[in-house]
């Protein structure tokens, strides 16, 4: 109804947009209902108008139906794609008996025309569906399969699709070459060559899952694909052109319905062999294994049932139980995938869908997406000639490893293989990472498992100790306590490892005192007037900070001695990825309120070091400013509290490392102990900080803080030893 | 109403007619293609359109094979008859590689008729030395899995002075050559002017594995050959210089963004890229300076840019550019690889590769995306945009990764050769494959022995990346060397009693290496539920799987290294190593253990020692005096990860183990060197306690001054074998949170520690 009325408007504007034309045709049979309902509104002129519109629409539709850019419309409606199937253009071909195959010397560097890919993103053009007919016999070159249709649809609906062949980097023929048994290889070559932008296959993508046919079963499809990139499912290392072709998995139609199974160590069988088309000699050696007494219990050998259906498997005994396939694979820790006439087998994905670790006995098989997926985490490979020792090899794998591998299999399957759409998109992602190597994900990202929220990657992984010569920059956040600020500056200035001081003046109502009024010190001093009074100003990665280490210090922390600060820096040098500092706090779980509780008592444990006097790497300032999860940063700025807790959460979440408390010093004129006008009473303040911890842990989805029972002291601390021989002797207590 | 209905009828008829007229012809076509009809019906039903299409694969593609269908077998057999298509399955004999991976080096070529030694470059000598002194080496060709030629094949440029002639006839004389099967051929240069053909080695390598620099995607035999880096003539045999990134500033703030200084060839193969580099030069943050000066006759070939280029070239210093640039361009030269690649890597200058089709060193294992940037020679002018678009975080990570890779795989010839071997070894059946994560993070694959355990879970390095903690509890291992008379109050019994009280102990292991007979079982103090194992080492040395040191013939006395054997009884991740006369209280054990849990890759313990450079003796010194720093925590009372036992036994050079065995000393120092070598971090000392020995045990070898001097010399031997001094100093110790604080002792968790003095 809406469509038709909008069409009226369109007609009034005498502008018929092609899209509407098509959609109108789509609802044509329902028009009658429309008129019944809207009877009282519509009058004769409207009818007339509508008739004209419909006629025009039909005419226009028919006019453009032969147009080659059909997917343009299809983008908006999946029905339309199907519709366009029925309007396939016919192309007559002369059968070509000459077989050139493909350019075996193709590499990414000479067969791919990179100049077509100079846009920032990968763009793929899909040819319209065409019907390729042999001139003489009227035979079709290929028939479209459901799987290839899904692949086309996946590309079409992806961010990679473009309808403009001129901005396309890659071209995807709509010619279905998935299975060489199905298409006519003498016609497929000429059909490809007849494509508008073929140009010897340059930048063209050929999806193929079952290459070769009897009797040779080549591992690459026998079609003149010239310089095209083959996205193939059965490569061996001889036919795979590394860095150019992409090895893809062979999809199994059974997976459309199959439910995935979860990883668990409690599976009855160590190994399940359920592949039907194994080579006879492999079947023989597996049979022998299953007969031997010690592995009979662990090995389940299944074959086809009498009904010759793929979804059932039967044991070799006559009265044997009938198993559902692929469900049965969920009973095994490992599943055997062996060589058959073709190299690649759909059994690989079927095993993976059941979180069963595939045991591959196919020499030189190129695993799917080999150049990005680290298969060593998910499959066991065994040489074909060693199948007889397979049980011994599998037996030696620890249960921990089995569960790890199962989880990896499950994750990989869900991430890259679970349906044809995912497989297609992954294929394009692989190509994208080659063509735009800058955007490529690292192998860590391709293979990382997010199953464990505690798994982390420490961005500060340089192992060498930070150089001593560099020193640290003291960043003092101050509002208006000038007197104490000056005192602090004077105390800091004598710390040998101090490189410079940065005063962050957070008071907008009052200009900072003139530089000349500051105490004269031997170290560089800079004052930065902030625009807003925000706590996050303390963690802004000011370009003025030239050192790795930042000492954030409150303007009233004047009790720390030079030795303490110097030693603190020394500790930070040994743990540059930790927060290293003086005031420590602990979080505890309160069973009564079922909440986290913030504690400033002196206990045997700490989990936070407050940034009122702490060293951290400048990288954390950057992360705090630009990569703080959730709305934590805004929340902290709005509430003028908890910036130190936020920093502790940030570092702990990224590294899993606890902070390090230095020296016994515990008494600070901290905000919690004084009653300044900015902060409300103690109790209220503590409650607020407890709420912070609660809030942050919810945002992170876990409690990243770690509790430790140790602090760092100088080696000779409190030793009965001449003070003048101690490097740090002025270490205060409490 | 009626009129309206009529209108509708008219309208519908019109529409239908129009449709039939314009589009309906489709209905009559193609009766021979029934799938069309299916599509039409698919449109009407609400199901997914593809559900109506046939599947690409049916039962016939997966049905069982009849017994006589051996066709594919023959097909796969006939394929790779030529050496150019070698794969491990076709050109490698696995039979000798099952239990051990041993490498045989052919003896040097006999002197020729003139009595001159056969030519062999210094680098090739270093390669051979590295192998011969390694644990891969065997002198028995019958036991070898891999063979290394005695003929120098590094430089196969026939114009080069190191070029060895008559290689084919030399190869023919080799007793085990067998068309190169199971041989590995190291090569840095192949081909010569003018085409620098990659495959022209001047001999037929046959089925030998090529470990070759500057390989291209096309020439490389996938999964068979190994691409190695090009290294220069002065490259060190061992250790070598560390990466030059010492500070880890963020952002880096280097003076230049992208730099290159090098030759260009004016014309000929590989010259185009370098010839056009001047387009990128802006003299500010992009410095691309080239010179035409090389060879004798460069003036004859020069083009009109040469003079200008040479002027700019002389304005910049190569080393300065390397150190002060964020990115370094690594363009191809005549060959695909260049020295520049390793130099940039070492300097932490992120390589920007302009060398199409080059297979980067150890590409099958190393994820270069984390340490280098790929540019495309065809898109040279995009390079400035590419490097400018890289975020500061990415640069930060890339630069650190260059250092990890340099230090773990490329720093010395030894590392390069060992990495090559490990890559080949991972292809062997029965040898576990390390994950990409292991290869690309510190401490790297060379120090991660996959035979120790199949999961990284059991090693100390990747725990944070996996999001797990070390497994709970520890095994106390007491090494009894002296075996003083054991009265009921002997230090050993006291120690066992103390350990029994610890809340984290899993079991106690006594290694009895003393000459005295074992005390009776009933004499040991009761350990209740904690198992106590006594293992007599003595003369009847215990064979532990995979530990050749355990089988040290009957004439040799048992090595003191036995205390670090990976005993099966040790099931926990943490090992508490103790000397028999250690005096520690339970709180100290528990506290040290909790500290260890946060630093499982380090040694955490009590007796700290220090090393220092003694200028007067020009040697390393070892001191047990009280100092402000330490670099060793003796294993007389320390926690460490079980994995280090395995590494100590199975990885350390036999030369080191022999030194320990002969001196019956220094095993604790060696363990410290090993752990520091792996972690590049200092050990951790806990609390104040320094003296950890029961002073009453008079017969201790520790009171012997010679003992101390011996340790001094051990330290120097070890440093020489490692090639550098791995020990790192620390200034801090870990104390309990309220240690010695003037608060009530009742508030303190580790009260016993408060009572212990120095």
From TrEMBL, chain A:
InterPro entries: Exostosin, Exostosin_GT47, GT64_dom, Nucleotide-diphossugar_trans. Residues 121-394 form the Exostosin GT47 domain. It comes from the Eukaryota. Its cofactor is Mn(2+). The keyword Endoplasmic reticulum applies. GO terms for cellular component: endoplasmic reticulum membrane; Golgi membrane. It is a single-pass type II membrane protein. GO terms for molecular function: glucuronosyl-N-acetylglucosaminyl-proteoglycan 4-alpha-N-acetylglucosaminyltransferase activity; glucuronosyltransferase activity; metal ion binding. Pathway: Protein modification; protein glycosylation. It is found in: Endoplasmic reticulum membrane; Golgi apparatus membrane. Belongs to the glycosyltransferase 47 family. This is Exostosin-2. It comes from Drosophila albomicans (Fruit fly). The lineage of its organism: Eukaryota, Metazoa, Ecdysozoa, Arthropoda, Hexapoda. The gene is LOC117571781.
Automatic annotation (TrEMBL), chain B:
Residues 474-739 form the Glycosyl transferase domain. Pfam families: Exostosin_GT47, Glyco_transf_64. It comes from the Eukaryota. The chain crosses the membrane at residues 7-25. Residues 100-390 form the Exostosin GT47 domain. Pathway: Protein modification; protein glycosylation. One of its GO terms (biological process) is heparan sulfate proteoglycan biosynthetic process. GO terms for molecular function: glycosyltransferase activity. It is found in: Endoplasmic reticulum membrane. InterPro entries: Exostosin, Exostosin_GT47, GT64_dom, Nucleotide-diphossugar_trans. Keywords: Disulfide bond, Endoplasmic reticulum, Glycoprotein, Glycosyltransferase, Membrane, Signal-anchor, Transferase, Transmembrane, Transmembrane helix. The keyword Glycosyltransferase applies. It is a single-pass type II membrane protein. GO terms for cellular component: endoplasmic reticulum membrane. Belongs to the glycosyltransferase 47 family. This is Exostosin-1.
């Amino acid at each position: 109804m809406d469509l038709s009325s909008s069409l009226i408007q369109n007609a009034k504007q005498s502008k018929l947009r092609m899209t509407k034309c098509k959609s109108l045709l789509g609802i044509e049979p329902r028009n009658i209902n429309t008129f019944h309902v809207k009877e009282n509104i519509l009058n004769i002129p409207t009818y007339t108008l509508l008739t004209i519109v419909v006629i025009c629409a039909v005419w226009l539709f028919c006019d453009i139906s032969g147009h080659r850019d059909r997917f343009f419309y299809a983008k908006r409606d999946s029905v339309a794609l199907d519709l366009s199937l029925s309007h396939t253009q016919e192309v007559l071909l002369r059968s070509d008996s000459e077989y050139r195959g493909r350019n075996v010397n193709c590499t990414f560097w000479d067969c791919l025309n990179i100049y077509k890919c100079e846009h920032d993103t990968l763009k793929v053009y899909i040819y319209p569906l065409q019907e390729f007919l042999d001139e003489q016999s009227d035979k079709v070159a290929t028939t479209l399969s459901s799987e290839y249709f899904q692949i086309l649809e996946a590309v079409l609906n992806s961010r990679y699709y473009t309808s403009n062949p001129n901005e396309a980097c890659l071209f995807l023929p709509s010619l279905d070459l998935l299975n060489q048994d199905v298409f006519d290889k003498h016609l497929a070559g000429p059909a490809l060559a007849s494509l508008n932008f073929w140009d010897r296959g340059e930048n063209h993508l050929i999806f193929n899952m079952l290459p070769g046919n009897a009797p040779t079963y080549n591992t690459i499809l026998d079609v003149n694909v010239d310089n095209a990139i083959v996205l193939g499912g059965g490569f061996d290392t001889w036919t795979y052109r590394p860095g150019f072709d992409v090895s893809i998995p062979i999809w199994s139609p059974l997976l459309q319905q199959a439910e995935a199974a979860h990883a668990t160590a409690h599976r009855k069988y160590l190994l399940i062999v359920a592949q039907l088309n194994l080579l006879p000699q492999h079947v023989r050696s597996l049979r022998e294994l299953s007969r031997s007494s010690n592995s009979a219990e662990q090995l389940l050998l299944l074959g086809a049932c009498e009904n010759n259906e793929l979804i059932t498997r039967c044991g070799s005994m006559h009265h044997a139980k009938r198993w559902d396939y692929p469900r049965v694979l969920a009973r095994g820790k490992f599943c055997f995938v062996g060589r058959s006439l073709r190299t690649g087998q759909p059994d690989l994905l079927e095993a993976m869908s059941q979180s069963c670790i595939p045991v591959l006995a196919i020499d030189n098989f190129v695993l799917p997406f080999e150049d990005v997926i680290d298969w060593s985490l998910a499959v066991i490979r065994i040489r074909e000639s060693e199948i007889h020792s397979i049980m011994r090899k599998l037996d030696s794998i620890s249960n921990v490893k089995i569960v790890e591998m199962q989880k990896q299999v499950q994750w990989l399957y869900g991430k890259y293989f679970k349906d044809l759409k995912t497989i297609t998109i992954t294929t394009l992602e692989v190509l994208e990472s080659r063509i735009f190597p800058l955007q490529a994900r690292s192998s860590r990202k391709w293979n990382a498992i997010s199953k464990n929220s505690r798994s982390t990657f420490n961005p500060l992984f340089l192992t060498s100790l930070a150089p001593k010569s560099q020193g640290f920059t003291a960043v003092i956040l101050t509002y208006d306590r000038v007197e104490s600020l000056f005192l602090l500056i004077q105390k800091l200035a004598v710390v040998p490892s101090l490189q410079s001081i940065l005063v962050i003046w957070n008071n907008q109502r009052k200009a900072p005192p003139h530089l000349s009024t500051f105490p004269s010190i031997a170290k560089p001093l800079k004052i930065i007037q902030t625009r807003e009074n925000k706590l996050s100003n303390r963690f802004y990665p000011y370009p003025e900070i030239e050192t790795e280490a930042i000492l954030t210090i409150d303007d009233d922390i004047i009790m720390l001695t030079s030795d303490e600060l110097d030693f603190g820096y020394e500790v930070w040098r040994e743990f540059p990825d930790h927060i290293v500092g003086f005031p420590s706090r602990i979080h505890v779980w309160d069973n009564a309120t079922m909440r986290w509780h913030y504690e400033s008592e002196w206990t045997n444990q700490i989990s936070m070091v407050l940034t009122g006097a702490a060293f951290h790497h400048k990288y954390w300032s950057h992360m705090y400013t630009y990569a703080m999860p959730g709305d934590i940063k805004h929340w902290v700025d709005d509430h003028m509290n908890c910036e130190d807790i936020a920093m502790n959460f940030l570092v702990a979440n990224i590294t899993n490392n606890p902070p390090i408390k230095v020296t016994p010093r515990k008494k600070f004129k901290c905000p919690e102990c004084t009653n300044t006008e900015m902060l409300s009473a103690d109790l209220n303040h503590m409650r607020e900080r407890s709420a912070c911890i609660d809030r942050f842990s919810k945002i992170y989805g876990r409690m990243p803080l770690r509790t430790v029972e140790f602090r760092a002291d100088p080696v000779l601390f409190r030793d009965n030893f001449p003070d003048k021989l101690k490097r740090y002797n002025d270490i205060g207590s409490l | 109403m009626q009129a309206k209905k009529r209108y509708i009828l008219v309208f519908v008829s019109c529409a239908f007619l129009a449709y039939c007229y314009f589009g309906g012809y489709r209905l009559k076509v193609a009766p021979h293609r029934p799938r069309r009809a299916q599509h039409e019906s698919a449109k009407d039903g609400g199901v997914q359109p593809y559900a109506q299409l046939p599947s690409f694969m049916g039962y016939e593609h997966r049905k069982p094979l009849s017994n006589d269908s051996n066709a594919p077998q023959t097909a796969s057999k006939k394929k790779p008859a030529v050496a150019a298509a070698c794969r491990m399955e076709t050109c490698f004999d696995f039979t000798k590689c099952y239990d051990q991976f041993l490498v045989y080096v052919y003896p040097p070529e006999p002197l020729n008729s003139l009595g001159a030694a056969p030519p062999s470059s210094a680098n090739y000598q270093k390669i051979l030395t590295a192998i011969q002194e390694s644990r891969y080496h065997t002198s028995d060709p019958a036991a070898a899995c891999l063979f290394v030629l005695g003929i120098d094949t590094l430089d196969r440029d026939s114009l080069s002075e190191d070029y060895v002639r008559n290689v084919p006839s030399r190869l023919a004389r080799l007793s085990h050559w067998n068309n190169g099967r199971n041989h590995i051929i190291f090569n840095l240069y192949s081909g010569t002017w003018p085409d620098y053909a990659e495959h022209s080695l001047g001999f037929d390598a046959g089925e030998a594995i090529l470990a070759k620099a500057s390989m291209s995607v096309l020439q490389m035999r996938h999964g068979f050959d190994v691409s190695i880096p090009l290294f220069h003539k002065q490259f060190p045999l061992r250790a070598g210089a560390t990466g030059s990134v010492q500070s880890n500033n963020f952002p880096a703030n280097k003076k230049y963004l992208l730099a290159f200084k090098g030759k260009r060839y004016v014309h000929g193969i590989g010259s185009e890229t370098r010839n056009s580099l001047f387009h990128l030069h802006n003299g500010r943050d992009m410095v691309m300076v080239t010179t035409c000066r090389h060879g004798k006759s460069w003036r004859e070939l020069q083009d009109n840019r040469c003079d200008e280029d040479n002027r700019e070239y002389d304005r910049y210093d190569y080393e300065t550019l390397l150190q002060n640039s964020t990115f370094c361009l690594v363009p191809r030269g005549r060959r695909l690889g260049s020295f520049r690649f390793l130099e940039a890597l070492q300097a932490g200058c992120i390589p920007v590769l302009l060398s199409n089709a080059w297979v980067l060193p150890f590409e099958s294992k190393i994820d270069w995306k984390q340490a280098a940037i790929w540019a495309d020679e065809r898109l040279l002018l995009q390079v400035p945009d590419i490097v400018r678009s890289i975020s500061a975080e990415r640069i930060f990570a890339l630069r650190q990764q260059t250092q990890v890779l340099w230090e773990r795989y490329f720093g010395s010839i030894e590392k390069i050769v060992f990495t090559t071997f490990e890559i080949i070894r991972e292809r062997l059946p029965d040898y576990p494959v390390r994950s990409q994560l292991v290869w690309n993070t510190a401490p790297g694959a060379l120090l991660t022995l996959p035979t120790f355990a199949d999961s990284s879970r059991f090693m100390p390095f990747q725990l944070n990346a996996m999001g797990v903690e070390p497994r709970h509890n520890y095994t106390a291992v007491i090494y009894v060397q002296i075996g003083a008379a054991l009265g009921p109050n002997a230090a050993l019994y006291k120690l066992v009693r103390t350990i029994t009280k610890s809340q984290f102990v899993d079991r106690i292991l006594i290694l009895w290496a003393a000459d005295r007979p074992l005390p009776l079982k009933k004499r040991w103090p009761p350990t209740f539920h904690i198992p106590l194992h006594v293992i007599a080492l003595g003369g009847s040395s215990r064979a532990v799987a995979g530990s050749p040191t355990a089988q040290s013939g009957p004439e040799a006395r048992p090595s003191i290294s036995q205390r670090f054997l990976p005993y099966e009884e040790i099931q926990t991740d943490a090992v508490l190593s103790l000397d028999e006369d250690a005096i520690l209280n339970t709180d100290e054990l528990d506290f040290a253990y909790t500290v260890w849990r946060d630093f499982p890759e380090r040694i955490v313990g009590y007796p700290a020692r220090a090393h220092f450079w003694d200028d007067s003796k020009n040697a390393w010194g070892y001191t047990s005096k009280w100092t402000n720093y330490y670099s060793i925590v003796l294993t007389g009372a320390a926690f460490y990860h079980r994995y280090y036992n395995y590494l100590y036994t199975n990885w350390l050079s036999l030369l080191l183990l022999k030194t320990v065995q002969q001196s019956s000393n220094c095993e604790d120092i060696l363990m410290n060197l090993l752990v520091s070598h792996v972690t590049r971090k200092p050990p951790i000392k806990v609390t104040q306690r320094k003296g950890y020995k029961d002073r009453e045990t008079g017969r201790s070898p520790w009171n012997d001054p010679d003992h101390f001097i011996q340790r001094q010399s051990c330290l120097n031997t070890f440093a020489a074998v490692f090639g550098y001094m791995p020990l790192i100093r620390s200034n801090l110790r870990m104390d309990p949170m309220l240690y010695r604080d003037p608060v009530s002792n009742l508030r303190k968790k580790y009260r016993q520690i408060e009572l212990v003095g120095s």
